[in-house]
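Q: Could you fold this chain for me?
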Amino acid sequence: MKQTILVVEDDKMIRELIRIYLIKAGYDVVEAADGEAAKEVFLTKHPCLIILDLMLPKLSGEEFCTWVRAQERNEVSIIMLSAKSRTEDKVKGLKIGADDYLVKPFEPEELLAHIEAVLRRTGQFCQKITHDGLCIKPRKGEVLLFDKEIPLTKHEFNLLFYFMENPNTVISRENLMDQLYPYADKLVLDRTIDAHIKKLRKKIEENPAVPKRIVTVRGMGYKFVTE
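A: Sure. Below is the predicted structure, expressed as structure tokens.
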């Protein structure tokens, strides 16, 4: 599972440069050019780290940082980028919730070093799989839908985790039964899996009657769709 980093920067050239270096370093990258757009990306992509420019249109970096820290799930790390180099500016950024503060201009290698240092402290929060606002954290046993925790049973959680680990792949009922009931005899029926999926859909689908995440593949099984 790759770690996802959100780059919030209104300067397209800087944003593109950061994106290129992060992808080369093995990270998944999502972007926003202003503070308001960053809110939507944050809620749908569940990044584990945010690189945040302070001088942003629509919503400043300070305001966005304060908004992030006010969210229920606010363990995400934040590295602020700013041309402001005064000590009081750095202290202010750290006080409102930044984990690190980097002064512009900077070298990409320097930014990568700061990212690695921050993730050494907070990387345990990055063990997650996300798609379109749905986020599963296997180590913490949590599932979030647009940043709201969704309570799942043990079987529902294991079922969703298996689906999200194998996106866009048709999975048979027999395979799913082996995942949920590895030591059970063959009396575990297909309709047991169907019942679990029906309950899971009610919790993660906008319209469970017309599912878009977990779809039925007639005569074959189910598929978690991300394409």
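A (continued): The mean pLDDT is 89.
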